[in-house]
Amino acid sequence: MIRRPRLLFAVVLALALAGRAFARQSGAAAPDYGPAIARLESFIEHEMKDKELPALSVALVDGGRTVWAKGFGFADPEKKTAATAQTVYRVGSVSKLFTDIGIMQLAERGEIDLDAPIQTILPDFRPKNPFGSSVTLRELMSHRSGLVREPPVGHYFDPTGPSLAATVGSLNDTELVYPPGSHTKYSNAGIAVVGYVLERRAKVPFAKYLKRAVLDPMGLSSSAFEPEPRIRDRLSMATMWAYDLRTFPAPTFELGIAPAGCLYTTVEDLARFLSILFAGGEGPGGPVLRRETLEQMWTPQFARPGEKVGFGLGFHLGELEGHRSVGHDGAIYGFATSLEALPEEKLGAVAVTTMDAANAVTDRIVREALRLLLAAREGRPLPAIETTEPVPPEIARGWEGGYGRDGKPLLDLEARGGELSMLSRDGGERKRLRKSGDGLIADGRLGWGTRVTLLPEAIRLAEAPLSRVETGKPVSASARWKDLIGEYGWDHDVLYILEKDGRLTTLIEWFEYDPLTEVSSDMFRFPDRGLYDHETLTFLRDALGRVTGARVGAVLFPRRPVGPEEGTPFQIRPVRPVEELRTEALAARPPAQAADLRTPDLVELAKLDSTIRLDIRYAAANNFLGVSLYSEPRAFLERPAAEALVHVHRGLEAAGYGLLIHDAYRPWYVTKMFWDATPADKHIFVADPATGSRHNRGCAVDLTLYDRKTGEPLVMTGGYDEMSDRSFAQYPGGTSLQRWQRDLLRRAMEKEGFAVYEFEWWHFDYKDWEKYPVLNMRFGEIR
Questions:
Q1: Which residues contact 656 (CB under 8 A, 6 or more apart)?
Q2: How far, in Å, CA of 654 to CA of 516, rounded?
Q3: How many angstroms separate the CA atoms of 134 and 179, rounded?
Q4: Which of 213, 441, 584, 736 could join 474 via S-S bond, C-beta 3.0 to 4.6 A?
């Protein structure tokens, strides 16, 4: 949304007057933050649009006052309920700060020793420890305990809502990954243990204790570790997304690891929290924590001399323009939060959005806000905020490929869905690239700031030149991995096991790729970095040797049934009998047409090039409805689309491939049958007859590749007409060869003016489809 200049001026003027009023009351000249806020607001609106964020709220703090707090977008997009500074969000791991403050209150009073073995407090807590040294609260709070990331029960994926006692008790079935104190390994399980210490000592549930001991004394009246009615009624909706472009509502279940991630709050309350930090722990009714205790929490733990960045007690420590910073990020289903403070300057910012894992966006908003506040306070010119532009599709396609050194590929640039992205061969997250000046920069929900300079047949990344590496056609994946590759877990969080670059690889928590190291035939190890640093992945089998699940560290991901076996046609149970639907569809009339559309000129593909092969499934029973729908196995397209398709087919000949057509022009009545027969939850795979499909216009084709030597169709990530995630054009699973073949088809079709449908890798629409009418002719009527 672009704000009208007159309204923007009014907002800035009001903020300036408010600042002067504050200055009169305090006797000090308050900084004029109005221009800084105006610049930040414009940037937030840009990010909301560019990153497609449903809602975002932000608050800025200077000492004891909130200088600005505002919501953007909609907390409930369907009801058009506006997001505000009072909107309630789930803030994920920001919760850890409050849990750790609860412990530090006890330490202040001498009731607890941070460096005593945890068994002195929780004698029943006994995970396997082959390293000898005991785990302490200090290690748990600074992620140095060596515990697994997630407990077996009550983990991040567990929707059953177990008690904190059951969650912590399940850790006795785990083994430490690293020796205590030796290595920073982020652990939600560890902070669950910290919270359980509070619960056991107080003999009241953790959420109630934190409210009484920490949240209420801070005056955080809109915050809680459980969804009380007054909190739940103001809770924003949130959105999940995945690399394959699907989106869906975020789940709302409570986590067993509540102390690590279950805080509900508002940016207004988090702004008050920042003010309390700046006041040295002084709450509205008295001290919540001593100033020296906060300094302990802001001191790097297990650090080398002079080290300033890392974990303190709870807080993550860093620097911003030479200033010490403290804070924490949070990510929980559909929500992303960034909270950062500059203790010496007493400036802070917090931002929360309702798009899963979009912490790169909230991080940047918070950091740009702090830079602007610093400049305004110091009377310096306000820093510009860099924005980016899309990479034109023709440029994106030209830079696709592998890049590396000495012929070894280190990263890949991929042009998909109209965007260019970058992914390291060592794994991590896929970063969206955008145009900035003469080069490219990572700018998306998952990352910001990595710059890519374009050179002749090379790129420069972080000052290191990387040459284009022709990787060619991948080899087939190892046969011993065939029954391991697939999907595991739950609808709300899928674990993909795939083959990538010759290695078995995971895609976990939707966005992190991790190449695995084989330990034995069914056991693999994660890299020594990332979410599951050095943990193991073990495949489980039943008595017949079939893979039934994958255990990641301590968490069991059950095997997910996805699609039919290879070579078996996918079929649904029609909502109503097919013949009944056929009768209705034949009697119905297509939608009204515009008067200025082109005259149809359908031509038969086989007559243009006899080497284009046909496998028209709708002329037989091997289709998703299990009945014949066409009287003849023929394929037609409007002439320009047909001629473009012939160009694709002939262009593939040099590589040894050709086109195999499953469907092209489709009479409208068949589209109506498809829609009426298909359950509503699968309607993304069929066209709405109310508007007519691009098949009905003779400008869409369903096809795959065949090998010209053998005549056999190539194996893709999923089968034709399969109504599953494997059909998505950017489905990340399967093997390198399957994805390469699918992408080869896509690139060849795009070159001639076709665009893939994002939910069906085989479906391509010709560029001029809107210029043609919806047709209902049967094949025998085409002349």
A1: 707, 708, 709
A2: 36
A3: 9
A4: 736
Are residues 518 and 538 in contact, defined by beta-carbon separation less than 8 angstroms? no
- What 8-state DSSP symbol labels residue 715? P
Predicted local confidence at residue 15, as pLDDT: 38
Catalytic: 400? no
> What does the longest C-alpha to C-alpha distance in the chain come to?
92
Helix (H) or strand (E) holding 340: strand 335-342
- Rounded to whole angstroms, the Cα distance separating 242 from 446 reads 11
Cβ within 8 Å of residue 391, ≥6 positions away:
419, 420, 433, 434, 435, 440
Q: What is the Cα–Cα distance from 646 to 668, expressed in whole angstroms?
A: 25
Nearest to 170 by CA among 535, 540, 525, 553: 553
What integer pLDDT is reported at residue 23 of this predicted model? 39
Bridge partners of 513, per DSSP, are: 428, 507
Token pair in block for residue 104: 């530090």
Task: For residues 242 and 589, give the distance between their C-alpha atoms in angstroms, rounded to a whole number.
Answer: 38
Give the residue carrying structure tokens 């400049």. Answer: 375
CA distances from 255 to 150, 227, 716 (A): 11, 12, 37
Q: Which helix (H) or strand (E) segment is 394 a member of?
A: helix 393-398
The pLDDT score that the predictor gives to residue 30 is 81
Do 728 and 758 form a contact (C-beta atoms < 8 A)? yes
Strand 613-614 and strand 657-663: the pairing is parallel
Instruction: Sort strands 458-461 and 464-469 into parallel, antiparallel or unpaired.
Output: antiparallel
d(CA 602, CA 762): 21
Q: What is the phi/psi pair of residue 472, to 5°?
A: 70, -170
Other beta carbons within 10 Å of 402: 20
Distance (Å, whole) CA 414 – CA 422:
6
Q: What is the reported pLDDT for 20?
A: 37
The residue among 109, 105, 126 whose CA lies nearest residue 117 is 126
CA dihedral (565, 240, 516, 414) in degrees, to 10, reads 90
Q: What is the DSSP-derived secondary structure letter of residue 323?
A: E
CA dist., res. 207 & res. 159, Å (int): 18
Q: What is the dihedral of CA 89, 270, 362, 31, to 10 degrees?
A: 140
Whether 303 and 324 have beta carbons less than 8 Å apart is answered as: no
Q: What is the pLDDT of residue 132?
A: 86
Q: How many CA atoms lie within 13 A of 747 on its CB side?
A: 17
Alpha carbons 468 and 364: distance in angstroms, whole number: 31
Which pLDDT value is given to residue 642?
98
Q: What is the pLDDT of residue 202?
A: 96
Evaluate whether 761 touches 724 at the Cβ level (below 8 Å). no
Structure-token pair, residue 246: 């699907």
Q: 776 by DSSP, 3-state: which?
A: coil
- Measured in degrees and rounded to the nearest 5, phi and psi for residue 413 equal -105, 130
Burial class (CB in 10 A: 0-12, 13-18, 19+), 383: middle
CA 165 – CA 154 distance, rounded (Å): 10
List, in order, residues 6 or more apart from 778 with CB less than 8 Å away: 631, 667
Torsion of CA 700, 702, 708, 709, to 10 degrees: 180
Residue 640, classed as helix, strand or coil, is helix
CB 56 within 8 Å of CB 354: yes
Contact (CB, 8 A) for 338 and 355: no
What is the block-wise mean pLDDT of the chain (783 residues), using blocks of 10 residues?
34 37 48 97 98 98 98 97 98 98 98 97 97 96 98 98 98 98 97 98 97 98 96 96 96 98 98 98 96 97 91 98 97 98 98 98 98 97 96 90 94 90 96 94 97 93 90 93 97 98 97 98 97 98 97 98 82 96 97 94 96 97 95 97 98 97 98 98 97 97 98 96 96 97 96 96 97 96 89
Could you identify the residue written with the tokens 């990641």? 552
CA distances to 55, 88, 341, 475 from 268, rounded to whole Å, are 15, 10, 15, 55
User: Of 41, 429, 487, 760, which is the active-site residue?
Assistant: 760
